[in-house]
Design goal:
Layout (H helix, E strand, L loop, with lengths): L3 H15 L15 H13 L5 H9 L2 H4 L4 H8 L1 H9 L8 H12 L4 H20 L7 H16 L6 H11 L4
Helix pairs in contact: 1-3, 2-3, 2-8, 3-6, 3-8, 5-6, 7-9, 8-9, 8-10
The protein binds NADPH dihydro-nicotinamide-adenine-dinucleotide phosphate and zinc ion (ZN).
Length: 176
């Protein structure tokens, strides 16, 4: 019998396995899995979200984009609802980076409520990381550009979750 906790731990186990050997872009080579776990922690402990499909999708949100995990893997193991949220927050890596960035702004407002929650947590986590453990060799200008781009994405989905949006605004105020 699968309950909420078994689904969450299955997601953590799967994401940790798929992101094995990957690190964040900071000088300490922080294990990549710290980032999806940070999203799950933000959603549960800071925003009080208890929708298990949202938490599982947050944990899995970068697996299809950045590992050999497939959409079918996600559906087989975690079901269609989680699969659909993960697809919504997965960029098309065949597109050039500026186009992907533009499309995130264009699509943010059209995402499902669940995908918007994951998107909010992702941007909060990445801004927090840029403040506390930034990608190596990023200039001040690049950090500032990233902050403004993240805000342009989040501005398209306002009215989704008060706590997460307040948290985003608070971290945005720390723009370098
Ligand atoms: P990104 O700008 O997309 O890199 C940021 C991404 O890296 C985050 O969204 C996050 O994604 C991930 N990440 C990993 N480690 C960290 C960390 N420690 N802190 C924050 N985020 C982290 O990288 P690209 O190389 O794709 O950048 C391309 C874009 O950057 C171009 O479109 C261009 O506009 C811009 N650019 C700007 C330059 C400048 O000097 N101003 C120079 C070069 C490019 P995830 O959540 O998926 O892990
Ligand atoms: Zn992410």
């Amino acid at each position: 019998m699968e309950n909420n906790l078994t689904l969450i731990f299955k997601a953590i186990h799967f994401a940790a396995d798929k992101h094995r050997g990957q690190s964040r872009k900071d000088e300490n080579n922080t294990p990549y899995i710290n980032h999806p776990i940070a999203l799950a922690n933000l959603l549960t402990n800071q925003a009080g979200i208890s929708d298990v499909n949202v938490i599982a999708a947050a944990i899995l949100h970068d697996t299809v984009e950045d590992t050999d995990a497939t959409v079918d893997d996600i559906e087989d193991l975690f079901g269609r609802t989680v699969r659909d949220i993960v697809i919504e927050v997965t960029d098309d890596k065949s597109l050039p980076s500026p186009e992907r960035k533009r499309l995130q702004i264009e699509h943010a407002g059209k995402l499902s409520h669940e995908a918007k929650l994951v998107k909010l947590a992702d941007k909060i986590s990445n801004l927090q990381d840029i403040i506390t453990s930034p990608p190596v060799r990023w200039s001040l200008e690049r950090k500032r550009e990233y902050f403004d781009w993240a805000k342009a994405v989040i501005d398209q989905l306002r009215g989704t979750n008060e706590k997460l949006e307040a948290l985003f605004d608070k971290v945005y105020q720390q723009k370098p």
